[in-house]
Amino acid sequence: xxxxxxxxxxxxxxxxxxxxxxxxxxxxxxxxxxxxxxxxxxxxxxxxxxxxxxxxxxxxxxxxxxxxxxxxxxxxxxxxxxxxxxxxxxxxxxxxxxxxxxxxxxxxxxxxxxxxxxxxxxxxxxxx
Length: 128
Known about the structure:
Blueprint: H1 3-14, E1 16-17, E2 29-32, H2 33-43, E3 50-58, E4 64-66, H3 68-71, H4 75-78, E5 82-83, H5 92-117, E6 122-127
Antiparallel strand pairs: 1-2, 2-6, 3-4, 3-5, 3-6
């Protein structure tokens, strides 16, 4: 199965919409940490880059929301979301490889904070 198919299947089968699917059928889809890691690992060896990601958590009423809105408004929580841009003259494959590492490091850092706070952590990936 190609990496795009794996990612799309994860989104369809395991993803959780951040917004009401009836109102926003193309809205962001969040994956658990484990499924986000599976998606990124499926991109290894390809030119599929992870341009960034948003950290999501579950509110008391079980809605998915941006993590900083319930974890706190401090510097630590706002900077868990990440982005990764290509360097000038960086090849597609080098950028993709670097973006995978940045994504994995960012996801594990967010998950560590979530566990410390006793919260759930989800990830919305932005890929190209």
